Amino acid sequence: MTYYEDQEPDDSEYSSQPIQKSKVSSRKVVREFWIEKIMESPRIFVLHNLLSKEECENLRDLGIARGMKRNAQSPVLGDDPRKHEVATLDFNENDFVRRLEDKLANLTRTSSSHGEAFQIIRYAQSDFYPEHVDYIDPAKSDLLGKGKSEIATVIIYLKSADSGGETFFNSVNTKITVASGDAILYTDSPICVLATELA
Questions:
Q1: Is residue 91 domain-resident?
Q2: For a designed S-S bond to 44, which of 3, 39, 83, 85 qualifies (C-beta 3.0 to 4.6 A apart)?
Q3: How many C-alpha atoms does 35 have within 13 Å on its Cβ side?
């Protein structure tokens, strides 16, 4: 998918391969989006150029305006061992957030109403997010009853790390580091089918 300077992005279709820049059009190419499959099981993808530099800055500013706070407790982990600052946005926080929610829902063939509110997370030097799983044990029925079970996770990098910053999938011994504006999407649920997998 090619985004042009004078064109509203159309997120109805996605390509699993990079799209070459047009040599005919005089319009300026802003960025090109494509999906790269990293692994089949679990299904891990990199969404290249999902957001522009300005869009990344927009989300960072929203998090700062909301107030970045240290996590203290998690309903799943108890005393939260995660070391970072986080701000949670509202659903449909503004038009940009709503469009991003719709974009990810369209990409994963799900409904934006089934997603979680975006969390803007900031890591300082030596901060980390420890090993965990993104699902709720069925025994925790009180959480499942509130729609807390996850079928897919998307991590959007809003800033490139000078060093480190990788996402490590321990069960398959795989580290992934992406650039600002890229995202990592992973799922092991048959419910979540990416648009690129339908081609």
A1: yes
A2: 39
A3: 22
Tokens 């900031």 found at: 122
> Which residues make Cβ contacts (< 8 Å) with residue 194, sequence separation at least 6?
14, 35, 43, 45, 107, 108, 109, 185
For the chain, 199 residues long, give each residue's pLDDT as a single digit of tens. 544 444 444 444 444 444 333 333 445 555 688 889 898 888 899 999 999 999 999 999 999 998 888 765 555 445 555 577 888 898 888 999 999 999 998 888 888 887 888 989 888 777 767 666 666 555 555 544 455 556 788 999 998 877 777 888 888 888 898 999 999 998 866 556 665 544 3
- Range(s) of the domain holding residue 73: 29-198
Are 92 and 99 a contacting pair, CB within 8 Å? no
**Does any domain span residue 11?**
no
Domain count for the chain: 1
